[in-house]
Write a structure and sequence with these properties.
The protein is α+β, with helices and mostly antiparallel strands. Among the domains are: 34 residues, no CATH class; 69 residues. The chain has seven helices and five strands, in the order H-H-H-H-H-E-E-E-E-E-H-H. The chain has a five-stranded antiparallel β-sheet with strand order 4-3-2-1-5, covered by helices on one side. Helix 1 packs antiparallel against helix 2, helix 1 packs across helix 3 and helix 3 packs across helix 4. The C terminus is likely disordered.
Length: 242
Amino acid sequence: MAEKKEPRSIGSRVKRNMVAGVLTAIPIVVTCVVFKFLLDILAAVGRPIVGGLSDLTRPHAPGLADLLTNPWFESALAVVLVVLAIFLLGWVVSRVVGAKLMALFDRLMDRIPLVKTIYGPAKTLLTTFQQKPDGVQRVVLIDFPSTEMKTVGFVTRTLVDQDSGRELAAVYVPTTPNPTSGYLEIVPVEKITSTNWTMDEAMTFVVSGGAVAPPRMNYDRSAAPPASRTDPADAAERARDG
């Protein structure tokens, strides 16, 4: 005869439901906060444009001008205009003429003393993440903050030690759950553990605090050993022999 389970107390049921509710609400709240933060930035950028449109239309259509200055409609229209402007900017830059104009704009930004210290490194970092680093995987593991543990990092570039010729890697280590802040570590390439993770998988792993990740990872041994660099002279000699 099966043993009859004792009914749970009201306090235990309330506690269980509260814990379940909190665990369910946290990711929803975090998502809403992040989206609100992004929308507020877009609205702040586009709000002056909507204000200018309101001033232009007021002499001819006062009703439309009042609608444009309505706080809710103004913010929504500002977000739409900024998103559309970003899309058009990407479309223009992908064309030859747009690329030339962007190069001219980059040179202009590089001539402004204070602006170039922010604009140049920021653009270089974004461009770096769109390219594969030389000889190593993009997503790696490094010994941090001690040799007894590892953390996920992104290789931004490789360097060579001036005295020993040892190959080094600049690795950006993002923090959880905000990957926009982190640490920059210079690590010998031979001490890097390469992974087969994509950027999206690694970023999801970082933002989720490790809760969302591929079922397997390369912890002790690299997924794909970095391709060794070939000396140009040796390559030319082998080409002549072949």
